[in-house]
Prior knowledge:
Blueprint: E1 7-13, H1 17-28, E2 35-42, H2 48-58, E3 62-67, H3 72-82, E4 87-90, E5 96-97, H4 101-107, E6 115-117, E7 120-123, E8 128-131, E9 137-140, H5 141-153, E10 163-166, H6 167-170, H7 183-192, E11 197-200, E12 206-209, H8 222-240, H9 249-266, H10 272-283, H11 286-295, H12 302-309, H13 313-334
Parallel strand pairs: 1-2, 1-4, 2-3, 6-11, 7-12
Antiparallel strand pairs: 4-10, 5-12, 6-10, 7-8, 9-11
Amino acid sequence: xxxxxxxxxxxxxxxxxxxxxxxxxxxxxxxxxxxxxxxxxxxxxxxxxxxxxxxxxxxxxxxxxxxxxxxxxxxxxxxxxxxxxxxxxxxxxxxxxxxxxxxxxxxxxxxxxxxxxxxxxxxxxxxxxxxxxxxxxxxxxxxxxxxxxxxxxxxxxxxxxxxxxxxxxxxxxxxxxxxxxxxxxxxxxxxxxxxxxxxxxxxxxxxxxxxxxxxxxxxxxxxxxxxxxxxxxxxxxxxxxxxxxxxxxxxxxxxxxxxxxxxxxxxxxxxxxxxxxxxxxxxxxxxxxxxxxxxxxxxxxxxxxxxxxxxxxxxxxxxxxxxxxxxxxxxxxxx
Length: 335
């Protein structure tokens, strides 16, 4: 086919030897051929760099950047800085894409479209689940803000994957390397401020690998909770221009994230009293309390939600103890 604009595909790589061939090959097999593949090795120690170097020798479209470990945001920033294309795509190194993925996104782009967004196919190994909208949406930035909550609820706002960015707009932005959680959403909100028009398409050719779930965010860290608050506030300000409680998807996600933190605290290395105090700090958050009281959102796991709403920390810890015990029993039976 006659390829037009150059697309820079940025893939941050860190210890993904098991998945890397699948990811790279899915890119090299694209029907759209006018791209450069920037593999950013972020200090891998498992042989991932050697795999990248081998591919670079085989295909002139591939460039390898080798850097000291600095995290995924640092790796993506290095890719942005090195990109020469008219557009930029981000792909995670344990994921893969359909053969016409790049072509589909480019064909849906235009001079007056600043961002093309598609859905995902979640790959659980034994099954695949699509997550996408049902029809094409061409939105001005004001229209996008009005639909932000429905898109947010469908997980189409946070990830930089499944999006075609204009290089001229991306070049002035960076992923915040000081933010360990939610940095993708913060980047996208900054990018959206530069946009006039967004196109969202009913396509799910990006395969999100759910068999390689990292445990990095499954351990309690105070800075993760701080990031949850930051993402909540920035989302509200983007949509409404103020932080107001209205029981929308942003409110519900904030409450779910707060409640999820209580389980991580229970499973942390803090002593019993520290766990109790830390959980109460989250449950006493004014916004959390107000949302749960005024809006009464329909959140996952009703019993856990009820215990958190009533601040029954002792019973909440018993709940987690029983839950973890049942999980261990079921795991043993599966062997």
